[in-house]
Write a structure and sequence with these properties.
By secondary structure, this protein is an alpha+beta fold. It contains ten helices and nine strands. Helix 1 packs across helix 7 and helix 1 packs antiparallel against helix 8.
């Protein structure tokens, strides 16, 4: 007699639910964990890096008029723009909150109402209008179902579809920590001196600076260096042995401040090679973790960074990786819902655990059904919609109880 095929059953445990919650917390913690959810960041000035949002409800003209673009901090997105149509901009550097400021005169900030100064140093790219990449399309794009990864350029901080970037054939972009788009590489030509040297894990710079990039971690060692003087300052100048004197040795080993070190006059920027000169125009470059430590910091190069307003390349706290690490450490110190949930779960009897899990599955099914029309019509889900969902769920539960129907988990 032929045995019936066993149907594959998918089981979910309360531990699975809590683990899913932990994964969601880790993702949001990486972006929002280092941000303050209760205090506006305006008093802090131009914050090194923070999570930002754009409110299209308060600035509907932002897509057509660049002068109407504005950005708000995490706390203001929660306290001042609740139920508004918000664009999540991930993180931006050196930005001061605009909520209730000169760019948003019709908005009253509940957290910092006095914002009289104009945020003249803020920079507003097309992301503040909900547009991205060289295709200038929204994300997600309602007119295409093509799945594509998006990467953020660390220079202009715009986001690009991977398929729209000029990438060298065979390049494994997932092996690198940071990306600089082709447009920024053309605008910052001095970075081409380092391109395909620092970014290639199998190559090194010249013998003035040797970069260890055999691994893809954050530790990129530069030699020779003086730990006190910085990565691009050689411990001593190259001197002809026949001309070395006691005075030379004393100067070389001096602990004088960096401004007095002769290394500031020695440029360690590698020369352009023929391979780099043949680089296709607008070709994006990909860089390993810690590559910024290898940038020359001589006076001439420092002037270049200032001229092009990219001094942030020398700031170790500028990277998105640093920002995310701060958020994760903060989340870990406060304790995750997974840890607390597992502790509470261990104190419950088996029957209570089953009831909780069943009710969770029921709510999840109902929520997916409820949200489906919003997804199809691309409507914004408001707080009123969520309140109505839970009110409906409670009405269903009361109706079942009053009718004497068996519990949901017994059906």
């Amino acid at each position: 007699m032929e045995q019936p095929e066993e149907q594959e059953t998918s089981y979910i445990t309360m531990a699975d639910v809590l683990k899913e919650q932990e994964d969601l917390e880790e993702t949001s913690g990486a972006v929002l964990g280092a941000s303050d959810d209760k205090n506006c960041t305006y008093p802090k000035g131009y914050v090194n890096r923070q999570a930002l949002f754009a409110c299209l409800t308060c600035a509907p003209e932002a897509r057509a008029d660049e002068s109407k673009r504005s950005g708000i901090c995490f706390a203001c997105s929660l306290q001042c723009h609740d139920n508004h149509e918000l664009l999540e901009l991930y993180t931006k550097r050196k930005f001061r909150c605009d909520c209730g400021g000169k760019r948003m005169p019709d908005v009253k900030c509940k957290l910092e109402p006095r914002k009289e100064e104009e945020n003249s140093l803020n920079r507003y790219n097309q992301n503040f209008a909900g547009l991205y990449c060289i295709c200038h399309r929204p994300y997600p794009d309602p007119e295409t179902d093509v799945a594509d990864e998006m990467l953020q350029c660390i220079a202009c901080e715009d986001w690009y579809h991977l398929r729209h970037l000029e990438v060298r054939p065979g390049k494994n972009v997932k092996s690198y920590a940071e990306m600089i788009c082709g447009g920024c590489m053309e605008a910052l030509p001095f970075l081409k001196h380092y391109a395909y040297k620092i970014e290639d894990p199998n190559s090194t710079l010249d013998n003035t600076i040797q970069v260890d990039v055999t691994g893809l971690d954050e530790s990129v060692s530069v030699a020779p260096t003086d730990e006190e003087a910085g990565p691009s300052e050689p411990k001593q100048r190259r001197l002809d042995d026949s001309k070395t004197t006691a005075d030379d040795e004393e100067k070389a080993n001096s602990t004088a401040p960096p401004d007095a070190m002769p290394a500031l006059d020695i440029c360690t920027k590698p020369p352009l090679d023929s391979d780099t000169e043949k680089t296709a125009k607008n070709e994006a470059t990909f860089w390993v973790g810690g590559w910024r430590k290898s940038l020359c910091q001589c006076k001439q190069c420092a002037a270049l960074y200032k001229e092009h307003a990219v001094e942030f390349l020398l700031d170790p706290e500028d990277t998105v990786q640093h920002y995310e690490d701060v958020g994760k450490r903060r989340l870990a110190s406060e304790g995750s819902a997974y840890q607390m949930g597992m502790e509470m779960l261990g104190q419950l009897d088996r029957g209570t655990q089953v009831n909780m899990l069943t009710e969770y599955n029921r709510m999840k099914e109902r929520l997916l059904e409820f949200l489906d029309p919003f997804v199809s019509s691309q409507q914004v889900v408001t707080q009123a919609d969520i309140n109505e969902f839970f009110a409906r769920l409670n009405r269903e539960r009361r109706a079942e109880t009053s009718s004497g129907a068996p519990p949901y988990f017994c059906r």
